[in-house]
Design a protein that fits this description.
9 helices, about 35% helix, alpha/beta, 5-stranded antiparallel beta sheet
Length: about 230
């Protein structure tokens, strides 16, 4: 079981802490705002109201024993950087830190943190990629210039099998899964839509109208496919 400290319980930090807990991690959530701590204490392993730039306070909750610490402070750059520096001094094994500006990223790189999370920069990339590729409904960046995109199956591919289309050879992308919405009638006679998610679908699986393809590849190749 991973032991993770989440420091800073704004919207981003609280979401990270709850998601990690749901995925089975042991999470200690930290913020100097008692209201934020009270709001999350039932959703994590342990929650502490303390100042993350106070070394004694951090060590009192065993911060030195976590597998990874994530500094999610976004509204106080000084506290973000000082907390990160203090975690390095204490000897935390792995440190992730949020950055909200290019300068902050440069400072965090100089501190040699393991991962820098730049939400604003990443969201900018996602918005730009969605605008230049209107067929893409969702996009997740995997690394620079590569990502995972959701695209509704083009009409001319409806009824054709995955093997016939040969995404890898023809479009230089890989299809990881299909999300399907199937109309059906419930026990009360009302029309509903059942959604299923097929991972690694069979090659002889025909694509249906309204299917959403989960595609992995370079931004350029995904854009070419979406604009075909």
């Amino acid at each position: 079981m991973r032991y993770v400290a989440v420091i800073g319980l704004g919207n981003f930090g609280s979401t990270v802490a709850r998601e990690l807990t749901e995925k089975g991690a042991k999470v200690i959530a930290i913020d100097k705002d008692r209201e934020r701590v009270e709001a999350i204490k039932e959703s994590v392993s342990y929650a502490a109201a303390l100042d993350s730039i106070n070394q004694a306070a951090l060590q009192s909750v065993g911060i030195q024993d976590v597998d990874v610490a994530i500094v999610c402070i976004g509204d106080d750059i000084e506290a973000n950087l000082l907390s990160t520096l203090l975690l390095k001094k204490i000897g935390v094994k792995r440190i992730w830190a949020r950055a909200i500006s290019p300068l902050q990223q440069e400072i965090l790189r100089s501190l040699d943190v393991d991962e820098i999370v730049s939400l604003e920069e990443e969201m900018g990339r996602i918005v730009a990629r969605s605008l230049v590729s209107p067929g893409v409904s969702k996009y997740i960046s995997l690394e620079r210039d590569h990502g995972l995109a959701e695209i509704e199956v083009p009409k001319d591919l409806v009824g054709r099998t995955i093997a016939e289309i040969d995404f890898r050879k023809k479009y230089h992308i890989n299809m990881a899964a299909i999300r399907r919405r199937t109309p059906q009638i419930d026990d009360r006679g009302e029309r509903t839509v059942k959604e299923t998610f097929e991972v690694a679908p069979a090659p002889d699986e025909p694509l249906g109208e309204g299917d959403v393809l989960l595609l992995v590849g370079s931004d350029a190749d995904i854009r070419k496919f979406s604009e075909r």
